Amino acid sequence: MGRIWEGVQGWLPGGLNVAIKRADEHAAMVEVNSELQLAKLQHANVIRLLGWCIHGKERILVYEFMQNGSLDRYLCDRTKGPLLNWSKRFKIITGLTEGIIYLHKHSMFWLVHRDLKPHNVLLDCNMLPKIADFGSARALSSDVAEERTGRVMGTRYQLPNISIITDSHHFVYRCSNLTVLISFVSLFSGYKAPEYASRGVYSMKTDVFSFGVLVLVIISGRKNTILDKRGDTVGDLVRDAWHMWKDQRLHELVDPLLGVGYEVAEITKCTQVALLCAQEDPADRPTMTDVAAMLNPECISLPMEPKQPTALIHGCTERDTTSTYVGQSSRTMDITITSSAPMSTSVRIILGPEV
């Protein structure tokens, strides 16, 4: 939503360090207002908004400063990964659990974050997590409400049937005298729940799905999706983790940087809980209160087993794929391909002669 700077204000008590975010001038005011909801939130695992200034087009937000930055810095940078031993990772998982429960149940409203991912998890001086970046957050009308996003990018049209599929990267669309060669550029957003990514429907179970994928990333140190040089999906973390869990091969999932210094029982339980959270059907996912109970050391056996993830074909499920395009000129079209798989696909289109 904007750029962030670290600031030290000497006139603040104790020379408090703060993080200053200057919102992008194109950021929707609804995103800024969502961030301002933070002023009403008080929890050890939720970032604190200390102040703000809105003057004309200038929108400045001031947060508490997190010394250790975002979680993705440690998961993506293999030189920093060893700083996160299993004990710290488990505390991050349980801290996130408590933070999300607070947003869902104990804040002044039923708040859905809608954008949980490593980049939006900040770590304090003790490597404890705080949920940040509430630009996408929305309040629900009740704790069981299911709502639909009102955000639509431009005017949408249903793309007529595709006539030819050439390979996993391209297809040719013919309509009248126009032939369009479409090249797929995959932009995976694998932390988003399928119903949210494909239909814009969100609920508390949306955050549960994101949490599940996030836990698998914390355990494995892997990206949630792996692409080859051509852009094809060659690895899906949820699918791979399910097979490793089912075949009792979880040692293959665990981040090698953890060495042998981890509790097998804890990782096994965390993996199963994560897979339950990342179920395709929201009804199959637990609540975050259930998650906290399952992660409790006194919980010996889990009440459910996760279902096998839907098989992906070129990153999309077979049974729920739609294509829409937005805007057009004499030379270009912008098309978005969505599906019930936890991803979205941007399309680059070349308009040219018959191919």
Automatic annotation (TrEMBL):
Keywords: ATP-binding, Kinase, Nucleotide-binding, Serine/threonine-protein kinase, Transferase. It comes from the Eukaryota. Residues 1-299 form the Protein kinase domain. It catalyses: L-seryl-[protein] + ATP = O-phospho-L-seryl-[protein] + ADP + H(+); L-threonyl-[protein] + ATP = O-phospho-L-threonyl-[protein] + ADP + H(+). One of its GO terms (molecular function) is protein serine/threonine kinase activity. Coiled coil: none annotated. Pfam families: PK_Tyr_Ser-Thr. InterPro entries: Kinase-like_dom_sf (IPR011009), Prot_kinase_dom (IPR000719), Ser-Thr/Tyr_kinase_cat_dom (IPR001245), Ser/Thr_kinase_AS (IPR008271). PANTHER family: PROMASTIGOTE SURFACE ANTIGEN PROTEIN PSA, PROTEIN KINASE DOMAIN-CONTAINING PROTEIN. This is non-specific serine/threonine protein kinase.
